[in-house]
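Obj.: predict assembly geometry.
Materials: sequence records (below).
Method: joint structure prediction, all chains together.
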Amino acid sequence: MTTLTGRKRLLALITAMFLLPAFSFAAPALHAAVREGVDYVTLAKPVAGMDRTVIEVFSYDCTFCYKHDQMVIPSLAKILARDGIRFVPWHLKTRGRYGSQASELFASLLTRDEKAGLGLFDDRASFKKAKFAYYRAYHDSRERWDRGPDSFLKTGLDAAGISGGEFQKLLREPATQARLKDWDGAYEIARIQGIPAFVVKGKYLLSMKNLRSLDDMAAKIRELMAK
Amino acid sequence: MKWIEKIAALQDRRILWILMAVIGFGLALTSFLVFQRWLYLRPCEQCVYIRFAMACLAVGGAVGAINPRVLVLKLAGYSAAVYGAAKGIGYSLALIRIGEAYRSGNLFGVQGCSAEPAFPFHLPLHSWFPTTFLPTEDCGVSYPIIPEGAVLSPMQKYFTDLYRDGWYLIPSRQFMTMEQCTLLCFSLILTALLICLISWTIVQAGNKLRP
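Observations (raw structure tokens):
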């Protein structure tokens, strides 16, 4: 009787060993059963034309935006790129002492990078250079640019390697102005649960406090994208 | 039972209520004048909520102190103070979670802070008293940000240097962050309030049952 129980146990163990990997393949799909109000919030005013896109609302003065941009977003973008999902940054101009100046510069630099065919995560991209120069100055060096907006802009311009004149030219371009107009919508998104904020398909705002890991975040984005 | 009656009787005197108002007001004033103005530790969203909780304690104490023998005033005082202490515990815990995520680099499971606070009861405190209730720093940051050109006294210099890597009760040992200290304060206050409230309720019930 004891031997039989022992054999049954062994059989159960072997079966479990074979079944576990099978379940682990299904795990991302299983734990990513997104629920409205828990995992995401549907925006009252969706952003049009954002299919296969994740909007990231950020600010240069936001600690967690810096950490996400450093540790999460590059890996996440790589994972999602396989499914043809792209990231679009929206800077929040209402936050930070120089929020407006930062928005204008970031929007201009994105226009410049687009023309040069440089992606968001390309180390040569002027947007990436300026963004991380601000992050490092604000959060690591505790710079607050008390001498005024010109000193603030200098940090970004120097990092991006462009002159004030070139910046003004880029700022006047229709693509930059259109981007800045879009970014005005960042405030309505940011006021729901703060930043960083991630909006899938222009409709679904991810609930940050219920994200468990990078894989969980990717799975939820994929699932919302399929909705 | 004697100590229960003593605690219950003490509540009919102003002294306990005044003490609570002084503690609540003192904590809020210390956070503003000492930490924000003198040490340049700028407040975050959760920090201004914690100030709001401190203000609730002060209001509760002040209401009770008007005349603690009047039942309505006593209950209103208790309500404001218990609410403030409970909210203070909640805000402190939220800030502890954010601080841990900030320090550990594990960003999942926490929500960063907003620059635009949403106070309970839709109170626009940040519009009415922006110097006190408007957040000017992000959550997780507890080190001094000294404005350019600021002239520091020798004592200010000593303390701002001491808290350079963040505020701790004992900086050399990195023992107890600001939010852990506020959690301890609010927990002690809530415990004291509940002991007082329960004692008073027991004595009142005993008096009613007595023939």
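Conclusions so far: Chain B touches chain A at residues 45, 101-102, 105, 107-116, 138-141, 143, 145, 147-149 (CB under 8 Å).
To do: check interface contacts against the pulldown list.
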